[in-house]
Amino acid sequence: MRPSPHHARSARGLLGALLTSLVSLAALLTTAPVAQADTTICQPFGTTTIQGRYVVQNNRWGTSATQCIAVTDSGFRITQADGSVPTNGAPKSYPSVYNGCHYTNCSPGTNLPAQLSTISTAPTSISYNYVNDAAYNASYDIWLDPTPRTDGVNRTEIMIWFNKVGSIQPIGSQVGTATVAGRAWQVWSGSNGSNDVLSFVASSAITNWTFDVMDFARQAVSRGLAQNNWYLTSIQAGFEPWQNGTGLAVNSFSSTVNKGSSGDPGSPGGSTACKVAYGANSWQGGFTSDVTITNTGSSPVSGWKLAFTLPSGQHITNAWNANLSGSSGAVTASNVTHNGDVAAGGQATFGFQGTSSGTFAKPSGFSLNGTACTSV
Question: Cis before residue 33, ω within 30 degrees of 0?
Fold first, then answer.
């Protein structure tokens, strides 16, 4: 069982003298011009920007061997990855592209850090290129913290493993499975001593995907590893190589964070604190569910949408007291005429019936008008 994939990177925040020198180096490097196609970076913590909005970083911290990346207008590829480290320890590096802030280096024009309760959606898209003669994971990282910090190590790291090659595994231990954003994942949880790590491991390699970062942030909230008043500080996509890695590439990356309020179109009623009680009766091949939404905020909600993800094998056949978008995987329930207004402390209820296969399970998280709810 290996330690944190970012153990050495996190340790930089704990060792004052080393951190000071690295921050100074980063400050010098970030004065480099915006990258043109095939700009090469071999400096351990060298960075540049692409598209005027994202930072690409070499981020070699687990070895003294050379690592070089060629930065393109849309991503990067590893062109030299010397040396190797044991697969039961930390990886060599985390070359990546990001939106947000990493060790005081914030991407141009970013609106991160942003409080989770203020974010309606955070759409993102990623395209990877893989190789076989290496040991690595393709890791999409989401960083959360109780404060809007732009430096050091955040409290919770969400890792989405799009692919893994070699005898490597996430931090901690597997705590179950979940369907998030319409895909099935192994779920791992643990700590590296500096921050909590919640990992979602794909059952097979994902090369291209467009999804909402908030679906995974809400998972962290529902599992007690973050709260609605915490901040999303950085969204990153790259690779953690242990052995070799030449040829790995992020072909393209995009990340947008949309903030919602009571005045925003498409965000009925605005965001508010909430809790959801999910009662279910199941039998072989079917189930019924009764859902109660409680507005735990201090302001009324006028019009609501409740988003959740049904576990794999479940399919809704009919519903009452709500209009549903989607019948399996990602589902959004919206109010009908008579239950759209929910006073502070008030409730709205709805239900549905469906078919199921395999072991029955409840959804692992809910969000009301873009705000993650506590589950009871």
Answer: no
Out of 50, 105, 114, 157, the active site residue is 157
Mean pLDDT across the stretch 115-134? 92
Residues 6 or more apart whose CB falls under 8 angstroms from that of 223 comprise 189, 198, 364, 365
Quick one: CA dihedral 129, 44, 189, 236, positive or negative? negative
User: In whole angstroms, what is the distance from residue 55 CA to residue 9 CA?
Assistant: 17
Candidates 144, 192, 240, 245; catalytic one = 240
Contact 245, 78 (CB under 8 A): yes
Catalytic (active site) residue 240: yes
Q: List C-alpha distances in Å: 143 to 113, 153, 280, 307.
A: 10, 9, 33, 22
Q: How far apart are CA 255 and CA 157, in angstroms?
A: 17
Nearest Cα to Cα of residue 167 among 246, 85, 238: 85
> What is the Cα–Cα distance from 319 to 327, expressed in whole angstroms?
10
The residue with greater pLDDT, 253 or 364, is 253
Helices H / strands E in the chain, number of each:
3, 30
Decide: 222 and 110 in contact? Cβ < 8 Å.
Answer: no
Query: Helix, strand, or coil here: 101?
Result: strand
**Based on the number of CB atoms within 10 Å of its own CB, is 64 exposed (0-12), middle (13-18) or buried (19 or more)?**
exposed
Angle at CA of residue 320, ends 356 and 179, nearest 5°: 35
User: How many CA atoms within 13 Å lie on the side-chain side of 86?
Assistant: 5
Residue type, 229: N
**Cα(243)–Cα(39) distance, integer angstroms:** 24
> Which pLDDT score is estimated for 30?
42
- The pair of structure tokens assigned to 16 is 């004052």
Dihedral sign of CA atoms 29, 139, 128, 136 in order: positive
Closest among 134, 142, 190, 143 to 164, alpha carbons compared: 134
With beta carbons less than 8 A apart as the criterion, state whether 271 and 239 touch: no
Within 13 A of 314's CA, how many CA atoms are on the CB side? 30
> What pTM, to 2 d.p., does this model score?
0.65
Range with the lowest mean pLDDT among 91-105, 157-171, 311-325? 311-325
Residue 181 C-beta-side C-alpha neighbours within 13 Å: 20
**Distance separating alpha carbons of residues 132 and 289, to the nearest angstrom:** 45
